[in-house]
Hints:
Elements: H1 3-27, H2 36-42, E1 52-57, H3 63-71, E2 75-80, H4 84-96, E3 102-105, E4 117-122, H5 126-139, E5 145-149, E6 160-163, E7 171-176
Parallel strand pairs: 1-2, 1-4, 2-3, 4-5
Antiparallel strand pairs: 5-7, 6-7
Amino acid sequence: xxxxxxxxxxxxxxxxxxxxxxxxxxxxxxxxxxxxxxxxxxxxxxxxxxxxxxxxxxxxxxxxxxxxxxxxxxxxxxxxxxxxxxxxxxxxxxxxxxxxxxxxxxxxxxxxxxxxxxxxxxxxxxxxxxxxxxxxxxxxxxxxxxxxxxxxxxxxxxxxxxxxxxxxxxxxxxxxxxxxxx
Length: 182
C-alpha cells in the first residue's frame, strides 16, 4: 500500500467514526444492533402474513430491518437511520442482498408520518421513547402495534412482555394503540 492510500483509508475511517460520535451526541444514542437472542424472541411476535407498513425506528446497522423484511415478506418495511456510516452499511447490504420489501431511509423518524403504520418497531433510549409516545398516539391508526425492546413506553400497558434469557434480561414489549381519548 502506498502512503497516500493508507492516509486515505485512515482519513475515511476517522471521518466515519467522527460521524458516529456526532450523530450519537445529536440523537442521544449510538447505533446498537439488536442482538441475536433478542431478535429470535422479538420476531415471532409478528405474524409472517402481516401486511401493511412496518416502521423500524433507528435501524442502526440494519440487523433488525433485514430480519423484519424476511419475517414479514408481504409487509413493506421502512427503516429509518440518521447516522451516515450505519446507514451506508445497511444501504450496501441492501444492494448486495436486496429485500424487495425493505426501504432504507436516512431520515429523522420524528419528521415522518406514522399514519399508515401497521407496526412500529423500536430500540430507543428512554428520552426518545418519552418523546415518541405522543407522536404514536397522535398518528398511528387504531389497532396499530408497537414492538419495543429494552425500553418501555411509560404509561402504556403492554399486551405482552417477554424477558430474554440473556446477560441483560432484555425485556420485549408488545403494545397496541390504546383507544383515542385515553
